Amino acid sequence: MLPGEEIGARVVVSNLTLAPTFLGLLDESVVGSERTRLVKRFNYDDPQLLSVMYALKGDPEFASAAHDPAIQRSWVGYFGGETLGEMRNAFGELTAGIVPDEVMGGWFIPTRADPSQAPPGCHTAYVWTSVPPCPRRWRASSLDGWDAWPGLAEPLAEAVTERMEQYAPGFRDLVVERHVMTPLNQEMNNPSAVRGNMIGGSAIPEHLSNSIHPYGATHLASGYLAAVEVAEDLGCRDVTWWRAKPLDWFLENLGCIPLNLGVDARWNGNASSPETT
Ligand SMILES: Cc1cc2nc3c(=O)[nH]c(=O)nc-3n(C[C@H](O)[C@H](O)[C@H](O)COP(=O)(O)OP(=O)(O)OC[C@H]3O[C@@H](n4cnc5c(N)ncnc54)[C@H](O)[C@@H]3O)c2cc1C
Question: Does residue 104 line the site of ligand 1, with CB under 6 A?
């Protein structure tokens, strides 16, 4: 598209969340003052994820593999929050703007499934924890809300790394490089993710829904549902080229999908365990 060029279309579909679409892409004269007022009050302040991405020179070995080696064949897991009470307490703190003292969250080691993401023998990992977008306190220190992120990113990445070290001793020594993404980085990277909100806005009773139908999650096929709605409205849903049935393909090919391609031979087999290999 050239600067100043104008493109006309019967329908424009926005992939942005509520506020950037109705306050950024459209003018109040189009949206109306009452709707604009409501959109301005839309809330994006639900707890979000802080994520730490690692390049590793080996596969982390979880201490719990001594009890159940299956964890070494898993590419996803969760940690912390040993009781429901601890989890409830942590989420209460998050809603109040407090970063819980104990880091709880989850990890992915995608290279256990797809080793092509790293050089031979090396791995990638992604570890996340929930944080308030505007943190007011962490471990007895007062914080400046949204403005705290540049100073808080590395200390929190360090706390996440320390937590992984507790569950997988030796993890820290495997780290070649790490990169942290805070809610601030998320918003800078994608202005549609206001306050770093990854699901299109807070899922709170006042909203009935966040701004994505049925909810902002990749597995709920929001883009597909939107495309179907638009195509039905425009009378072009029943076309020859729109026949893809990905679930059918998946079910037909399920048995051929290779598993555990990046899992070390030591763990890759029913009988393998640290004691037997
Ligand atoms: C850390 C993290 C973890 C997540 N984990 C999960 C999970 O486990 N399961 C799950 O289902 N979902 C998860 N999500 C949520 C999921 O990623 C989102 O729901 C999904 O990516 C939304 O897709 P989208 O295409 O609707 O919007 P987006 O991916 O937000 O795409 C919007 C695009 O518009 C661009 N853009 C923004 N402003 C403008 C503008 N003014 N003009 C032009 N372009 C613009 C942006 O750069 C972006 O490319 C996670 C998200 C994050 C951040």
Answer: no
